[in-house]
Amino acid sequence: MANYNPYENMLQTLDLAADTLGIPRNDYEVLRHPEREMNVAIPVQMDDGHVEVFTGYRCQHSSVLGASKGGLRFHPDADENEVRALGAWMTIKNAIAHLPYGGGKGGIKVDPKKLSERELERLTRGFVRKIAPIIGVERDVPAPDVNTNPQIMSWIVDEYSALTGQWTPGIVTGKPLAIGGSLGRNEATGRGCMFTLLSYLEKQGTSIKDLTIAVQGFGNVGSVGALLMHREGAKIVAIGDVHGSLYNANGIDVEKAYEYANSHGRSLEGYEEPGMTRIPNPDLLLLDVDVLYLAALENQVNEANMKEVKAKLILEGANGPLTKDADLYFFEKGIPVLPDVLANGGGVVVSYYEWVQNKAGFYWSEEEVNEKLAKNMKKSFEEVWAMQEEFKVYPRLAAYMVALRRLVEALKIKGYNG
Ligand code: NAD
Q1: What's the pLDDT at 6?
Q2: What whole-number distance in Å separates Cα of residue 104 and Cα of residue 61?
Q3: DSSP summary character for residue 42
Q4: Does the structure show a pLDDT above 60 at 326?
Q5: CB-based contacts of 195: which residues, under 8 Å, 6+ apart?
Q6: Which of 10, 19, 144, 260 could form a disulfide with 174 if both were Cys (CB 3.0 to 4.6 A apart)?
Q7: Is the CB of residue 53 less than 8 Å from the CB of residue 42?
């Protein structure tokens, strides 16, 4: 996997989407190139006085439909290629969800668990000072992603507002409620994944009741999704995070595990319950379950393990958890994959609602947010489903086709001058 380049994967799917729709290269060439990319050096004085310099990235993949929009990831593996692919996927995802946004993504190469709280704050504020010239409420609006959270979003708002001399809550989404966050944002990605699964099951004429589900990743996307699916009657038989995986054939007590993770820095380390056994992380992916819900990182199911996967359906909460080979393999095998750009769009949809509320200075009830989210996810699902049926293609390709049509329409109207 050393040479795995997720941006190349994105391009191949985009080209295939264009071919299938008969869209000439000239009409979408713009989308094959990230619009703007910035790499920054962020010096941080550590608690013991020595200075470390971290590398940060921001990729604005597209602004064809509006401000670039996408999360920030703090991870030791963050690099230009990863951020570029994640930014491009946001362009596709935002177009599918009918949001007035382009796509972007950012990151810092760091293991935040090795930093003290004060060091993490200095790093975040330093990053904001470096990318401030290219972000903005109408330009580029970051949000949380892996290892970033509402606290980090708060430091971003504070630093950006200090730099511009103007209170600017809409510069990021995923904020705490106290400074302009939206009700329902924290749960939105997991809830959206559940809505996508329910829409799919409805088409099959089946129910979520007693479906067995294995969940890789128990952070924001994994834990909330697992909890909501459990509340709908599914049996979550395995959960796992970077510290290890747990299996219980009778169903994990997800309410208890969720509480535990939330009060232990979103970690399952040390969690115990009767009847549960510990299994190696790679084994969780190979369990004989109805649904494999992937909610950790990209490239988890690939040429090395795809043939051993026994799940009957794959739900992508994470971005890019399957390599392209794995995607095609499952298509050939008739194992449906509910793709990231559709299934995990709930987070950015409610981020959009947060941004709208910030601009209006008028805040909605949680019920209102969840109702709007449900409608949006349903509409996106139906459009992708219709495309899939019409062209007899696999769901990810159908999702790209829906997005590409919308993007090309906008490009044609706007012109190609960048
Ligand atoms: P998070 O940091 O809250 O959680 C990530 C989880 O994955 C943690 O439980 C971590 O321990 C686990 N993990 C990491 N490496 C692992 C490994 N090798 N094996 C097993 N578990 C591992 O991050 P998140 O916000 O939940 O994001 C998860 C995925 O969902 C990412 O791909 C992200 O891009 C995507 N996503 C997030 C959002 C959002 O709103 N947060 C929206 C759309 C997509």
Answers
A1: 86
A2: 5
A3: E
A4: yes
A5: 346, 373, 374, 377, 378, 381
A6: 144
A7: yes
Q: Where are the alpha helices (DSSP H) in 165-245?
A: 185-204, 220-231
The ligand 1 atom at the shortest distance from the C-alpha of residue 144 is 41
Whether 333 sits among the annotated catalytic residues: the reply is no
User: In sequence order, which residues have a C-beta less than 8 Å from that of residue 135 and are 6 or more positions away?
Assistant: 58, 141, 142, 160, 171
Single out the catalytic residue among 105, 175, 235, 324.
Answer: 105
CA–CA distance, 188 with 336 (Å, rounded to integer): 23
Q: Please indicate whether residue 119, judged by its CB atom, sits closer than 6 Å to ligand 1.
A: no
Q: Which of 108, 123, 130 is nearest to 55 (CA)?
A: 108
Q: Which domains does the chain have, with CATH numbers?
A: 6-168 (3.40.50.10860), 188-338 (3.40.50.720)
Q: For ligand 1, say whether the CB of 186 is within 6 Å of any of its atoms.
A: no
* Dist CA 327 CA 345 (whole Å): 19
Counting every residue written for the chain, the total comes to 418
- Between the CA of 19 and the centroid of ligand 1 the distance, in Å, is 33
217 C-beta closer than 6 A to ligand 1: yes
- pTM comes to 0.96
Straight-line distance from the first to the last Cα atom of the chain, in angstroms, rounded to the nearest whole number: 35
pLDDT tens digits, 107-163: 999 999 999 999 999 999 999 999 999 999 999 999 999 999 999 999 999 999 999
Q: In this predicted model, what pLDDT tens digit does every residue of 228-284 receive, in sequence order?
A: 999 999 999 999 999 999 999 999 999 999 999 999 988 999 999 999 999 999 999
Separation of CA 125 from chain center? 23
The tokens of 286 are what? Answer: 């190979």
